[in-house]
Design goal:
seven-stranded mixed sheet, 31% strand, 7 strands, 181 residues
Length: 181
Amino acid sequence: MPTTVHEFNWPDRIVIGTIGRPGERTFYLQARAGAQLASITLEKQHAALVAEMFDEMLDELSTLDGNPHSVPAHTPVELVDNEPLEEVVELFRVGSMNLGWDPTMSQVVLEAYAFPDADVEEELPQQEPESEELLRVRMPVGMARAFAKRTQEVVAAGRPICANCGHPIDPDGHTCSGSEL
């Protein structure tokens, strides 16, 4: 079956946001270019890892002799996006993600593949299942830096972590397993 590719080159907006209260949040990656809008669901860990990898890649690129790609060391103020998600219509749930660099366009490339359908795995146990959908976003370095910063803030905005046991503290209370030590 051919893969459906949702392609965003030079998007107007690329953000990770959430719906729900801390402890029950659903994370979405959302891209928009003009009237084209795509939202995919991902795990909090995916979001945190993507932000970390973006920053690592951008930091490495900025240390190249003469910074040939004009990678900003910090998020450009004019690219900060603190607006909520737009209308969310989920295309798919993320199964895996790739991060790359396109030196010809000086753009970061993010690819998110749909979580494989369980039926495909059962039908073809000897083969690795192929994703039927892919979201590919190519963004300039400043936008990538802003994306990473916002994503880190969204991930950190969850439930506070207990200093004793390291588990999240729910709004309605917390039984600390660290106090048994």
